[in-house]
Design goal:
Keywords: Coiled coil, Cytoplasm. Helices cover 79% and strands 0% of the residues. The chain is mainly alpha-helical and 292 residues long. Helix 4 runs antiparallel to helix 5.
Amino acid sequence: MADFGFNEHHQNEVINYMRFARSKRALRLKTIDSCFQDLKDSRLIEETYTVDEVSDMLDGLQVLVRGEVEMELINTAHTNVLLLRQLFSQAEKFYLRLQTDISELENRELLEQVAEFEKTDFKPNSKVHQESSKPKLAPLNEGGVSELLQKEISRLQEDNDRLKARLRTLESQAMSALDDKSKAERALKSLQKSQGDHQEITNLEGTVAAMQADFEKTLNANVASQNDLQDSLVSAKHDLLRVQEQLSLAEKELEKKFQQTAAYRNMKEILTKKNEHIKDLRKRLQRYESDE
């Protein structure tokens, strides 16, 4: 069985999607078969036909088959968009920006691996764990750039929370020191009024002066710590903005690369031909209405 490097959970998700795609494909093929059968039952009732009659029947069959195939291709594209929407929504909850390589969609080796994987009838090597409830999608691409980005964001957020907590602690200590100073000053004034002992007042003044000096030293240290914390916060914000800018540039580069792929040019050519076909049909319809 082809190995895509997925864990068991993600491989089961791929199996579920391929089963869904297989069922849709089988239904569309039955519809196409019914188009041919309807032609046989309704038109092939005579032994001989003219060239014009055969050409008319083939043209009608071509329109039906083309419509069915086009409808299936459009539905498949829209279904893939809905699948990508689920994955991107999950990733954005973790502040991730997933990237896709459109050129890999035409990688013949990988396509052959997918075809070989489908031939195994979706029987994984290990026993499939049947979950009781529908699991939520986990963020894709847990390795490489996305994993580093997620770790960096988590680290910056943790540093930010830690610095904020440290800042609150220093502010609390400063308020406590101011409160102690106020209490000492009130005690000194009360002692000066109630006692005339110059020596005790001198000692108390010395104690207050020492407390004031210690308070000023602590306050200066707190101010320096607050400045360091603020600088760290600013640096963390700058790092986060730089990472976001790099991701934005990578996203623009991916979009530019997609517009240069063969798939994009083919789709654009198909849309152009489709528009021309619609214009031609409108002209024919106007001509028929004029004849009536």
